[in-house]
Design brief:
The protein has about 100 residues and is of the alpha+beta class. The protein is about 55% helix and about 15% strand.
């Protein structure tokens, strides 16, 4: 399951439609369709992620090992800015 999500996140990254990190997500301009967050994030970071979700009016998918999926050390959140890939990740997560 995580490998499929990693593939979708890789597509987003190559398309330039993935913003990595809480601070970068806060500064993101335009539409964010999905936030992918790591369950190991601290409580303060989890609160920030919930605030981001409310700001962008988008769902949050919680996963394990996000840093390995996006190949960025200590990454706790990824903002998906591509509508179809966000929908694919959400559909895959429901399975």
């Amino acid at each position: 399951m995580a490998s499929k999500m990693g593939t979708y996140l890789g597509f987003c990254k190559r398309a330039g439609k993935l913003t990595l990190g809480v601070n970068a997500a806060m500064a993101a301009r335009g539409r964010v369709y999905l936030l992918v967050a790591d369950r190991s994030a601290s409580q303060n970071t989890q609160k920030e992620i919930q605030k981001l979700a409310a700001r962008f009016a988008c769902p949050v998918v919680w996963t394990e090992g996000l840093a390995e999926l996006v190949h960025k050390e200590a990454c706790k959140v990824a903002a998906v800015r591509e509508e179809h890939l966000a929908a694919a990740i959400i559909d895959q997560e429901k399975e």
